[in-house]
Write a structure and sequence with these properties.
By secondary structure, the protein is an alpha/beta fold. The structure holds zinc ion (ZN).
Length: 686
């Protein structure tokens, strides 16, 4: 393992500063810790609030991530108040947490790590605790003691598996006290503890320990055996299968709470899922317990008998039974090992492995899916490395359940921000590069949805999606090129959407064009173009959405941005009004047809929304001004003056109405029209 240490970068840093710096170095290496795993500490001399000199232990706060950790995420504690606990006989988690909270020096500090006492009981100044892959590949084997001795000799202690807390800390402290010549301590099926008088020394020891383990593992590496037929599918064919099966899978794992799917077919994953023993070896368990919180005890391994390439139809047929089987197995595990009074967590799999296809990770959003995927990528490496030196083993089912339902670990989940109205929802918006479509996409994303913005202008659409992602800080918006008039373009765009998030919950059919001309002068090409975008385009996107909705079986929601013209047509607007009327009529049919599958279809009728509008081109403004017999500069005022409330209508006003229909707040409404026009008497829906 490569050291990331630089004397230049570390120069002048000490105490908490060097702790933050080195913790980040460790966090950068996903072979050491991933997504919130591991912790670190430093012991310094300082003063309490009265000015009395004391010894302070700075330890990582619970739930923070080492890669991005900041000063305020470390908690200062009175070390001399913690040390007497070493002599206690026993302590429950609650007693320990209560005691620790009384030792915290700074009010408002984060709750200190559950492994705080472990850091306190080890005398060295700088201490790092990692869940290193290479170390766990050694410990997660039946012959761990022999192997560890072979790699490190006798000056590394191995502590048997205990759930973190008082007992593990005490055992660790005792091991050190018994043998101060120890180089490091390895926690069975958990990770590594290293230390030093300086941060550099402690960090270097971490790297040295891991490098030794990696060298040993490399000597034992075996050539992987794979099912050759399953590997023969091309990348393109594999991804088509993944896209075809994703909505069904999303529906099956989202029966309780909706999930986002993240698909991955990295070579190491394919090699793993295609291994003849993958089915049994994948069911053993995580390599370090805190991964459980993201991945659950085991993945769902979908074993579909096929003679060659992955077969989408066979997989789709097998999915419902397989996911149900997983839930039953999980419920049985919970019933058998639970502590009384605890309620069962979501029994659906977080990791789904399919030979010939790869991995699907599930999560409440992209980030959660990525955490699961990243952890599993490391799990695959550790399982294979462990199996190569001996055989891979994990915690017992009782230990797994004990950890998965441990209140101390579940506490971290309460630190997450509350879910928003559109969390876990996937929405696709057409015509989203600007104007109304962009405003709708922004609002949906702000309320927690994952949004696919589509338009014919990919560059502009990307900019809109990037702006959303910058605000959200996550890849929750994606830009996809789509020409709604092209069957193949529409199909491809929906495939991309499914590939990005696993399915669809909301379609906002917003793309549209306007042509203004009296009928006797209307060209056939303008007529055809209006029908193609406003009517046929609407048909094509709705057809794809309904197919996905039905495959998921989770209902569905279509919101149509129509126009006031459907109910109150204006002169010279024949092509526009007729094509939009076709759009609305088809939407009503869809409301009737979709009801059985809980697919709702509702319409919003805006009028005269000019801001950032692609529909209101300079040309169309000129033509509409002429049709109304007014100068072009007065057009916006004209539209405002003709409504009852005398108001201008903005994209955000339309977005508000669309969000209402897209949300569960309107769950009992379908086939309805909501005008957003400031009140136009002729356009009242009736
Ligand atoms: Zn740990």
């Amino acid at each position: 393992m490569k050291s990331r240490w630089s004397d230049k970068e570390a120069r002048g840093l000490e105490g908490l500063d060097i702790l933050v710096h080195t913790s980040r170095l460790i966090g950068l290496d996903t072979n050491l810790v991933v997504w919130g795993g591991g912790n670190s500490s430093v012991k310094v001399r300082g003063m309490d609030h009265t000015g009395r000199p004391i010894r302070i232990l700075y330890v990582k706060g619970s739930g923070s991530d080492m890669r991005t950790i900041a000063h305020k995420q470390f908690t200062p504690l009175r070390l001399d108040d913690l040390l007497p606990l070493m002599k206690r006989e026993a302590m429950t988690d609650d007693e320990m947490v209560a005691y620790q909270s009384k030792c915290v020096l700074e009010p408002g500090s984060p709750k200190p790590s559950i492994e705080t006492l472990l850091h306190a009981f080890l005398p060295p100044t700088h201490i790092y605790h990692t869940h290193a892959d290479a170390i766990c590949a050694l410990t997660d084997t039946p012959s761990r003691r022999r192997i560890i001795e072979e790699v490190y000799g006798k000056n590394v202690a191995v502590i048997p598996y205990f759930r973190p807390g008082f007992l593990l800390s005490q055992k660790t402290g005792e091991a050190y006290a018994k043998n101060p010549g120890l180089r490091a301590i390895i926690l069975d099926k958990h990770g590594l503890i290293t230390w030093g008088a300086s941060a550099k020394e402690a960090y270097r020891e971490t790297i040295r320990m891991i490098t030794q383990a990696e060298r040993f593992l490399a000597r034992h590496q075996r050539r992987p055996r794979v099912r050759p037929a399953a590997l023969s599918a091309s990348r393109e064919a594999r991804r088509l299968v993944a896209t075809a099966i994703a909505p069904t899978l999303r529906g099956e794992v989202g029966r309780g709470k909706r999930m986002v799917l993240l698909y991955d077919d990295a070579p190491e994953l394919l090699q793993f899922v295609n291994h003849p023993k993958a089915k049994s070896i994948s069911q053993i368990g995580p390599f370090t317990p805190d991964h459980l919180m993201h991945t659950k005890p085991w993945p769902l391994f979908l074993d579909v008998k096929s003679s060659g390439r992955p077969d989408a139809e066979a997989i789709i047929a097998a999915l419902p039974g397989a996911v149900e089987g997983y839930r039953k197995r999980y419920a049985a595990y919970f019933e058998r090992y639970k502590t009384p009074g605890v309620t069962m967590l979501d029994p659906n799999p977080r990791v789904v492995l399919i030979p010939g296809v790869g991995l699907f990770a599930t999560g409440k959003d992209r980030r959660a899916g990525r955490i699961v995927r990243d952890i599993y990528l490391h799990t695959v490496g550790v399982i294979q490395a462990g199996a190569a030196v001996s055989s891979y083993v994990s915690l017992s089912p009782r230990e797994l359940c004990d950890f998965e339902y441990w209140p101390m670990e579940n506490f971290k989940l309460t630190l997450l921000p509350p879910e928003k109205e559109f969390s876990r929802r996937i929405a696709l918006v057409t015509g989203a590069a600007g104007g109304i479509g962009k405003a709708i996409a922004e609002r949906l994303a702000a309320e927690g949805a994952m949004v696919i913005l589509t338009d014919i202008d990919l560059e502009k659409t990307r900019k809109a999606a990037d702006a959303i992602n910058q605000k959200a800080g996550e890849a929750n918006a994606a830009a996809v090129k789509m020409d709604v008039t092209s069957e193949s373009s529409v199909r491809k765009a929906f495939e991309e959407a499914v590939r990005a998030y696993g399915g669809l919950d909301i379609l906002v059919s917003n793309a549209g064009i306007a042509k203004s001309s009296p009928v006797d002068r209307l060209s056939l090409s303008d007529w055809d173009r209006s029908i193609a975008v406003n009517a046929t385009g609407h048909f094509l996107v709705c057809r794809e959405a309904v197919r996905i909705f039905k495959a998921q079986g989770l209902g569905g929601n279509i919101v149509v941005v129509a126009t006031k013209n459907v109910l109150a047509p204006g002169k010279d607007f024949g092509a526009y009004s007729a094509s939009k009327a076709a759009q609305v009529q088809l939407s009503r049919i869809l409301a009737i047809e979709g009801a059985e599958d809980k697919i709702r279809v509702n319409m919003v009728n805006p009028d005269g929304v000019f801001q950032e509008s692609g529909l209101w081109s300079k040309e169309i403004r000129k033509e509409r001004a002429r049709a109304h017999g007014i100068p072009i500069g007065k057009l916006e005022d004209f539209y405002a003056q003709r409504n009852l409330l005398k108001l201008k209508i903005y994209p955000g006003d339309v977005a508000e109405a669309v969000l209402f229909f897209a949300s569960d707040r309107s769950s009992k409404t379908t086939g309805a029209i909501l005008p957003v026009d400031g009140g136009v008497r002729e356009a009242f829906p009736r």
